[in-house]
Structure formats: structure tokens, C-alpha cells
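STRUCTURE:
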């Protein structure tokens, strides 16, 4: 759980870092909530980037206790196209999906 709190704090600091030049984006929206068994955050910047994530503990108090995360991020690429990725990260690993991502062939 401490890892989650540190991760969220570092992510917020990275997004709130001072711009490197006048052309850099500004934060339009930043929300976060961290509890003992869950967390959530949402960030949106003026350059079209956004990210949000919700996480919670599963199987609390057992040997199988783990965090389950669901989130998304999007950004505008150099080609002007907005790319979006949704993901789940849980006991089954990291599972991203997006229109521009390759899909594994069916077995």
C-alpha cells in the first residue's frame, strides 16, 4: 500500500513540475484521493494529455492480497492524432488496449 501512495505522489509531482519552456503545457485539472484500501487520480493538461486511474486492494488480509488497477491515458501524437490506451493491471498482469496497439493472435 505504501508503494501506491508513493507512486501517486511521484506521479503528481512529475505532472506538476515547472515547465521547461513557454511552449510547455499547464495542468487544467488534477484530482486525487488516497485511502487505506483504494486510490484514484485524474489529470488533464492543456496539450491534450489526460490520465486517470482507480486502484483497490483485493483479498484484504489474506496471502493473496493484491492491488487491482483500472485506468486510461491519452495524448496527441506528433502526427496530430489522439492516442488512447485503457488498461487493467491485476493478478493477471498488465492488460492494455487501444485502437493503435497490436492484438495478439488467437490461439
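SEQUENCE:
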Amino acid at each position: 500500500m505504501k508503494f501506491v501512495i508513493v507512486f501517486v505522489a511521484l506521479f503528481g509531482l512529475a505532472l506538476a513540475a515547472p515547465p521547461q519552456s513557454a511552449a510547455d503545457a499547464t495542468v487544467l485539472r488534477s484530482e486525487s484521493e488516497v485511502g487505506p484500501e483504494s486510490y484514484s487520480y485524474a489529470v488533464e493538461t492543456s496539450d491534450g494529455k489526460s490520465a486517470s486511474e482507480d486502484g483497490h486492494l483485493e483479498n484484504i488480509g489474506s496471502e493473496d492480497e493484491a492491488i487491482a488497477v483500472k485506468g486510461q491515458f491519452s495524448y496527441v501524437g506528433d502526427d496530430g492524432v489522439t492516442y488512447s490506451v485503457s488498461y487493467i493491471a491485476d493478478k493477471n498482469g498488465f492488460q492494455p488496449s487501444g485502437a493503435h496497439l497490436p492484438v495478439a493472435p488467437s490461439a
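REMARK: The longest strand covers residues 66-76.
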